[in-house]
Amino acid sequence: MLKQLHTKHQPVGQFEDTRFEKIHNVTYKSSLEASNFVALEIADLIKEKQRQNKNCVLGLATGSSPIKVYEELVRMHKEEGLCFENVITFNLDEYLPMDKSNIQSYFYFMHEHLFNHVNILPENINIPDGTISKEDIYQYCIDYEMKIKSVGGLDFQLLGIGRTGHIGFNEPGSHLNSGTRVITLNHITRIDAAPSFLGIENVPKKAITMGINTVKEAKRIVLLAWGENKKKIIKETIEGEISADVPATYLQEHTNTTFVMDEGASSELTRVKTPWLVKPCVWNDDLKLKAVTWLSKLLNKPILKLTDKEYNNNGMSELLTEEGTAYDLNIKMFNRIQNTITGWPGGKPFSDDSKRPERANPSKKRVIIFSPHPDDDVISMGGTFDRLIQQGHEVHVAYQTSGNIAVSDEEALKFAEISKIFNPESTKVNDIIEFIKNKHANDIIDSLDVRKLKGDIRKSESLGATRYLDLPDENVHFLNLPFYETGTIKKGGLTKDDITVMKSIIDKVQPHQIYAAGDLADPHGTHKVCLDALFAALEEMKNEKEYMKDCWVWLYRGAWHEWDSHEIEMAVPMSPDQVLRKRHAIFFHQSQKDGVMFQGDDSREFWVRAEDRNRLTAKKYNDLGLTDYAAIEAFKRYHF
Ligand code: F6R
Question: What is this structure's pTM?
């Protein structure tokens, strides 16, 4: 409850005008801070119930959202003696059919993340049973409902939210009064689950889920949402009308619900995205640019044609008072965007750089391009990469992970069989072929040799692309960050070892420029961890190493989305020929062509998506009234 807000974890924008919002919500700077706040609320509830000599009945969720909450609860148990003996849990859902021993099961998930590490009594754990037979399932669901009632109902329900707006697995169309039952999973939900099942064909089509009514009867509900992947559904849920199309909107009628979010998830809320429509603003230059580009897009007019009347009609009269007239404001913002455009991403030598995104000096820079997977470099900034080399900078590319998980068995088999032609007696090669041929869809962990082969395939594809761009092989670095090498989609957490690897390559190159994927919407999180590894390294090095004072960091975005126009601080245009060169560089990543394993819900190949996105960025600039380029790659500076 809000009164339980702990001063240790203060949300951002706590007392803002929430006039468009129909659900109480708080936003934290990071999902870690937010999770700690939620864990604290749960711990307080458990302790309060202990004082009253009562059980504490928790409804629990799985998925990526609650992981850090569980981690913090485990920590509190281990370090602060938080006792779980009075806790009874009911999980929201389970795939159907699903064996308890399957590492994709929610049974496995809950034990791995929480139950195995706290002193909860096994008989107090309730998770829908994914092995129940068709004949028994109806009664089983009724019994599950009754059991929740028999212990006094849920005191607290933890929820995540799916991109379909599902809570539990109550997919669009679910009824307000629904109880625990079998449900058919929505296609988007199955796409989102596909990475952990290594392909959508392995994702179960059905699940058992608590109903909307089961959830709504909880005395307290907290829904967690992290990252930009959730921002659209969060806006629809908090600001939209109640509708079965977005089942989470039913929570608008629950009187004790809080949505706890990070800044990515809340970024589409009207209050955050267009604050001038809601409240008086402190107008700094960034906010002015955001507002002006927003208005230009809304009215479908170039910036230089926006009028005083249009500003006044769209919540920006106060801005005009500050700026004088639309004419002055328009020119100022137009110039600001104009100055982001450069064909010299490493800085234009021997020229006035006061209005350019990069410094002129030194004229030859040392550059590291960090690429989370062995293809993000060319997909996201292939044109800029090419220019940096051609303009004579000392460019290095560092592939942060091996990307081995994303190579299909068929692709690996192809290479193993070719290798066998030259080494017919090699036990290693024969073992690899044998392993792949006998691999069952559910045996998702490859042998070490298969993983190595898959990683090596990606390595030689990367070298194909970097050689095509004329980069010497000695400037290509494969970091194989340890967090990634689990053999499964679920990655380990970031450790000191990862940061040490990052620091050592930075120290070796002593770069003037670093490029990195500032992509927080990567469906399976690798980009985010890679970015965290860089940020942690920069933080440690900034005071240790003199050369870091002269190092600028530019963030590009991966295949999933682009910076908004107002966020772009360097825009590198590409000619049609450069677009073709970039396309060719991407083509070297053959294992990622034709039905990539982790495509998300966009089935186009990466080169098509990349071209489309670069064309779109150019169009956005053109719509704002700037020159009409064929394509643009976009970057935002990160200050550390
Ligand atoms: C899980 C569940 C689902 C998830 C939702 C979000 O028990 O019921 O509703 O909470 O799909 O999943 P993540 O957190 O992985 O984004």
Answer: 0.84
